[in-house]
Design goal:
Blueprint: H1 2-24, E1 36-41, E2 47-51, H2 63-74, E3 82-87, E4 93-97, H3 105-117, E5 126-129, E6 162-167, E7 173-175, H4 184-190, E8 196-201, H5 209-227, E9 236-238, E10 246-252, H6 257-267, H7 270-285, H8 291-306, H9 308-311, H10 330-340, E11 349-350, E12 353-360, E13 363-369, E14 375-380, H11 387-395
Helix pairs in contact: 2-6, 2-7, 3-5, 7-8
């Protein structure tokens, strides 16, 4: 009883310590920061003012800047994702993906047109080989919903695992994108919906992600096969490439990693972020990709970039910010922004301020650069969204120098 009481008291004191530090260290921002932190640095990365700079807080989507920086370090700005195409003696096509985040309708059509130029006139069955990913689980923090932000991920992902559909007054379902034909999966996802336009992910309710992703991918490849003038028909599904199949073509995406990251940051695409995150681990430690390799790679790179002390206070379960178990500090994010400066143009501008937002229930964050180049970070884990007010104060220079005390 005594031991339990001591344990409870110790836990309570720890909670109170962090609560007090998060509430007491920002006296001049007390009306807008109830539980959070901020920091601003000069163009050399030297901290000019901050509070709670070492308090670990939930980052939400601002963590995508860290994912982007890590990918640029490991993969390089000109890196291109690949997809391999095999064909067997029965003219069955096998698609082996390596996590290309932008394997969209246009890219699939390019693949099929290339196969036709190589003399392929018939494709029968189409199979998806997803062996290059061996995920322990789906994305931490992902919810089961129709929201595209909750789309599953895997080795072969087409159109961000989401469909854009239009349902007319007669309840007929059509593709809402001119580059994407109406697929059978779209009609299934459009059932029981009222007329209108929808953007939904392909895996909802009790769906099995691997099977659904393979179905979607195979259907898109089939439709683009026919569009390119290659004949044939057959079944589709998941299947490992047989030994008698030959490599027909290795497709490298038209977009470079730098171009993909610009889109990822602009639209805050969770699927893209986590495919990039997983690829960093796989390229560093070998395929198949998994979460353990990615986490290890990210931590090692952060430790190399910023030192073990800074890296020790961060926790990155995944690369998009979906997980509420992710943690970063203001000091860490300022260091990331200092390294990310050459790529600041990849960030979306809001009122001439390049920044990334991070928003979840009770989480309202900003990270970016002021017009004069100063990096800033705002981490608010509270009910009130006052990040705009905090940012305006930083823009006006209304912050005390080193509010947290002398920098050590």
């Amino acid at each position: 009883m005594r031991r339990g009481g001591v344990s409870f008291l110790t836990s309570l004191l720890v909670v109170l310590f962090f609560w007090q530090s998060a509430h007491a260290d920002c006296p001049t921002f007390s009306t807008v920061i109830a539980n959070g932190a901020y920091g601003i640095a000069d163009s050399q990365g030297r901290v000019l003012g901050a509070c709670n700079e070492d308090t670990p807080l939930i980052p939400a989507s601002i963590i995508k800047i860290t994912t982007a920086l890590t990918a640029l370090r490991v993969l390089g700005a000109d890196y291109r994702f690949k997809t391999e195409l095999f064909i067997d003696t029965e003219n069955n096509l096998f698609v082996r993906g390596f996590g290309d985040p932008f394997l969209v309708s246009e890219e699939v059509l390019l693949i099929m047109e290339h196969l036709k130029k190589q003399g392929i006139t018939t494709i029968n069955d189409i199979y998806i080989d997803d062996s290059q990913f061996a995920l322990e689980h789906q994305t931490p923090g992902r919810k089961i919903s129709s929201n595209p932000y909750d789309a599953p991920i895997g080795a072969t992902v087409v159109n961000f695992n989401s469909v854009s559909i239009r349902i007319d007054k007669k309840k007929q379902v059509y593709s809402a994108e001119p580059q994407t034909p109406t697929l059978p999966i779209m009609k299934d996802l459009g059932k029981h919906r009222p007329p209108g336009r929808y953007q939904v992910n392909v895996c909802q309710s009790s769906c099995k992600p691997k099977e659904q992703m393979a179905r979607f991918s195979a259907e898109l490849f089939r439709s683009q096969q026919l569009k390119s003038g290659v004949g044939g028909k057959g079944i589709s599904g998941r299947k490992t490439i047989p030994k008698d199949a030959r490599l027909l073509h290795t497709h490298f995406n038209s977009k470079t990693l730098s171009e993909m990251l610009a889109s990822m940051l602009k639209y805050s695409n969770n699927l893209v972020a986590n495919l990039v995150y997983l690829t960093v681990g796989a390229e560093r430690y070998g395929y198949p990709a998994n979460w353990s390799k990615a986490k290890k790679a990210i931590h090692e790179i952060m430790e190399s970039e910023f030192g073990p002390e800074t890296a020790s206070i961060i926790a990155l379960e995944e690369g998009s910010g979906l997980s509420r178990n992710n943690r970063v500090s203001v000091r860490f994010m300022l260091a990331v922004l200092n390294r990310f400066r050459p790529y600041a143009h990849l960030l979306r501008k809001r009122e001439q301020t390049p920044l990334k937002s991070g928003t979840m229930k009770g989480v309202y964050n900003y990270a970016g650069y002021l017009q004069d180049g100063k990096p800033f970070v705002i981490l608010l884990n509270q009910d009130a969204n006052t990040r705009g007010t905090v940012l305006e104060r930083l823009k006006l220079g209304r912050y005390p120098a080193l509010e947290f005390g002398p920098e050590t």
